[in-house]
Every structure is written in C-alpha cells, then in structure tokens.
Design a protein that fits this description.
binds glutamine; 11-stranded mixed beta sheet; Amidase signature (AS) enzymes; globular
Length: about 500
C-alpha cells in the first residue's frame, strides 16, 4: 500500500467491509496487519492476554473463500478482540483471574458464536480487571493495560483491553461487558465509541457472570456506524439466555440519519459533581451546545434518585457476585489447590486464586446478603433501584434521550487510585445509573482535556438503541474527534 492510503489497521469496520468486498484488500492482509501490529505494540500496552494468531489466520482463509463466493456477511473478515470474560472454545478464558488460568470452555458464548458464524476474525482475548471488577484494568491478575494516549495512564476498566486494542489500532472492533460502566468508561478514557445495550438485548450466555441483573455485552468501535454494525451482529433473542429479549432487532444503521432536529435532549442536573475536572465540564458543555446547534431542543430533567445509584450498585453488584463466584471451588474447573480436607482445598483454592478486589466484593456481597443484614442492605438496594428506574421512566415522558459526561475525569495515572477503593468506585458515578435502570447508553468522544480524550454519554429508554446511535452519530459527524489518533510514541 502507498503512504497516502490509510494503513490497514486504521480502517473502520465500514471501510474495511468495502475494501474487502471490492477486493482492494484480502482478509489475510487485514488479519496479518493486525497481528503484526499487536506483536509490535502490545508489549507496551498489554491489551491482550492471549493472541489467537493461528485461529485468526485460518479464519481469514475461510472468510476470503466466503467473500470470493459473494457470500460475505457484514463482519466476514473483520478482525475482532474479545474481552476475556467471553467463552471461546479455541482459546483460554480466564476473566484475568488466576483461578481460571488456562481454562478452556467447552462452548462458545452466544455472541462469540454469532461472530464466528458471520466469519469474523478472532485476534485474541483482551485483558480486563479480574472478573470485570474495576475501573482501571489494574485488577488484572496478569498485567495492567496502559492507555494508548499516554502510557503512564490507565485505559479505564473493566474492559481496558478491548478499549485500548481498538484505540491503538490493534483490532477493528471489540466486544466488552458493562455491569456498571465497563464499556462506556474505558471507551471514554481511550477516545473510542462504546455501547452498552439495553439489558436483555444481547444474550449473556457464555459470559462469565459478575452481576447477572446488570451485566450486558456490547461493542467498542472507532465510529458510531461501526458500533451499530457490531451491535447488529450480536443483538437478538437467545433461547440459551432466559433474560434475553424476544423483541425484533431493528436495522441500527438505518437509524443513522445525521438529523437530530427537533429531538428533545435532556440534561440532568444530577450529572454534575463538585470537584469535576474543568476540562471535562468544558468539553461536555461544548458538546451540548453543538447538539443544540444541530437542532435539538435541550430540556432540563431531574433524576432525583440517581445520587443513590453508586451506593446501590455497590450493594447489588457485590451481592450478585458473591453468589456467582461461589462456583469457583477448585472442583469443577480452573485452579485446584490440593489440601488435607475438602474444606481446606476450597479455602486455599479461593484464597490463592482470587485477587484482592474480588475478595473484597465477595465479602461485601456476602455481608449484604447475610441474615440480619439482608433487609437493611440488599432489599433496600432493590427498592432504591426501582426508584432510580422510575426517575428515568418519568424523564422519558419529556425527552427522547439524556446526555451526560461519561466520567467526571479523564484517564488517571496508573496507581493513582488503586490504594483507595472508594476513589476508584467514584469513576463509575455517571455510568451506573443506566445499569441500575437497564437502559442503553453510548459513549462517544467529545474533545480533549490535558491531552486526554473526554467522552459524551447518550442514554435512552429501553430498546431505544436506534435513538442514541442516531444522536451520537449526528454529533460525531459534526466533529472530528475520532479522526485524531493516539500519538504517544509507542502507538
Ligand atoms: N467499575 C465497576 C465495578 O468495578 C463496573 C464494572 C463493570 O461494569 N464490569 O464494578
């Protein structure tokens, strides 16, 4: 390729699709370009826990045959990174935990199966906070991920690997999971698009469970259009997940009209904080002004209970996690430490296999569920959760969507918050309300502060993915933030 042509690793999904279909490039070239880039760049970034080089090259051959036969699906030949909480039959799946070191699932997650059936290319399993618990990816038992914009900073979490891989052009798109913000926050920190679908829109079958009433799988991409295409491939009912929703899947790309004139966009007073970074406020305000200039009507709304979302989340999510993680006992799979008695073996396996944050969550959750505290903590949190959801339901009578900053700060330096769980939990303050209410949210780049990306979050009613995609896309088209690429020396 000549210097004036974009590098293969720079192509968006939509661009790569055209280039593959017109035979301007081959699936093999596209795959190799990504594998070479991973080899060259990832040692300094740490986005991958396991690179699936051989699988990827085989998939590229099969994808090419399909393209040549004129039978390409939208993701045929597209290089993808998969967060390592998604089960894959042909690669280890560890949730970045020692307790699952080397574990090979006997089946694919439904989203993995769908991408496989479309002929996507699996580049590898992406790094994450252990069991998706964290906001900085520093809780990975194997290695931290570094932010491609500044290697001294975190990429966000828990899907730090999928976000950094897409930002650093080491994958065209990726899949992550979002329980309290783990797609949107790292997308924001890494300057890419991240979409958390409505609870139930995407099957959770084969997703290593963290908090089952909150977990949702979604895509990372370098454009809103790409995010729409990726969601199209994974959304829809799955008989293997009883919480997946049977509602028909709309054509997400068709929603990207570029026109948001007359839409009512809500601004919630509660999505501002004392001590918020001035650069984040400035970028958010400029984005809101841009939405207004594009013809949207701005409406002030109130979500009076959203201030309780964070404490409610940090009861609900650990409570569910403590139950979900009970299965890692060293008997059925993963790490197994031999000891004199079964009980001792449980204790030593879990004591050695789980990291500090995971243990903290299990203890918090077990406490919140224990008799005597169950009503005071867990049941109370469920009631507050209903109030949070109701606030949104009322807001939807007045607005089509709500915008907010994705996070109160830009990406922070590695180590800056790892000693203080409360400070770390505060990173999620603007993202957890959507999980508590089960609604969709998309993070889209909206400027820079301290040289680091700032992100705009668009929230909508349940199953209004077309609406939030449409708003994010119209905004994105009016700006050029996504055209900027990480410039740090390593990238
Ligand atoms: N950062 C939040 C937590 O630590 C959210 C994690 C997630 O969405 N998986 O729980």
């Amino acid at each position: 390729m000549s210097d004036t042509m974009p590098r293969l690793t720079d192509l968006t999904l939509a661009e790569a699709r055209r280039a593959l279909d017109t035979k301007a490039i081959s699936a093999n070239e596209l795959t190799r370009a990504h594998l070479e880039r991973i080899e060259a760049k990832d040692p300094r970034i740490g986005a991958y826990l396991h690179v699936m080089g051989e699988v990827a090259l085989e998939q590229a051959e099969a994808a090419q045959r399909r393209i040549d036969a004129g039978e390409a699906a939208p993701l045929t030949g597209i290089p993808v990174a998969l967060k390592d909480v998604l089960c894959t039959v042909d690669a280890p799946t560890t949730a970045a935990s020692r307790i699952l070191e080397g574990f090979r699932p006997p089946y694919d997650a439904t989203v993995v199966r769908r991408l496989r059936d479309e002929g996507a290319i699996f580049l590898g399993k992406a790094n994450t906070d252990e069991f998706a618990m964290g906001s900085s990816n520093e809780n990975s038992a194997y290695k931290p991920v570094r932010n491609p914009w500044d290697l001294s900073r975190v990429p966000g979490g828990s899907s730090g690997g999928p976000a950094a891989a897409v930002a650093a052009r080491m994958a065209t798109i990726s899949l992550g999971s979002d329980t309290g913000g783990s797609i949107r926050q790292p997308a924001g920190f890494c300057g890419v698009v991240g979409l958390k679908p409505t609870y139930g829109r995407v099957s959770r079958f084969g997703l290593l469970a963290f908090a089952s009433s909150l977990d949702q799988i979604g895509p990372f991409a370098r454009s809103v259009e790409d995010a729409a295409m990726a969601l199209q491939a994974i959304a829809g009912h799955d008989p293997l997940d009883s919480t997946s929703n049977p509602a028909p899947v709309p054509d997400y790309r068709a929603a990207l009209t570029g026109d948001i004139a007359g839409l009512r966009i809500g601004i919630a007073r509660e999505f501002t904080l004392e001590g918020m970074e001035p650069g984040v406020i400035a970028a958010f305000e400029a984005a809101v002004a841009r939405l207004e200039a594009l013809g949207a009507n701005l409406v002030e709304v109130s979500l009076p209970h959203s201030g309780y979302a964070l404490p409610t989340y940090y009861i609900t999510a650990p409570a569910e996690a403590s139950a979900n993680l009970a299965r890692y006992d060293g008997v059925k799979y993963g790490l197994s430490v031999e000891a004199g008695t079964l009980r001792e073996s449980y204790e030593r396996t879990r004591g050695e296999g789980f990291g500090e944050e995971v243990k903290r969550r299990i203890m918090l959750g077990t406490y919140a569920l224990s008799s005597g505290y169950y009503d005071a903590y867990y049941v109370k949190a469920q009631k507050v959760r209903t109030l949070i959801k109701r606030d949104f339901d009322e807001a939807w009578n007045r607005v089509d969507a709500i915008v907010a900053p994705t996070s109160p700060t830009v990406a922070f330096p590695l180590g800056a918050r790892s000693g203080d769980p409360y400070q770390m939990y505060l990173s999620d303050i603007f993202t957890v309300p959507a999980n508590m209410a089960g609604i969709p949210g998309i993070a889209v780049p909206c400027g820079f502060s301290e040289g680091m990306p700032v992100s705009l979050q668009v929230l909508g009613p349940a199953f209004a993915e077309p609406m939030i995609l449409r708003i994010a896309h119209a905004y994105e088209q009016s700006e050029s933030w996504l055209a900027r690429r990480p410039e740090s020396a390593a990238v």
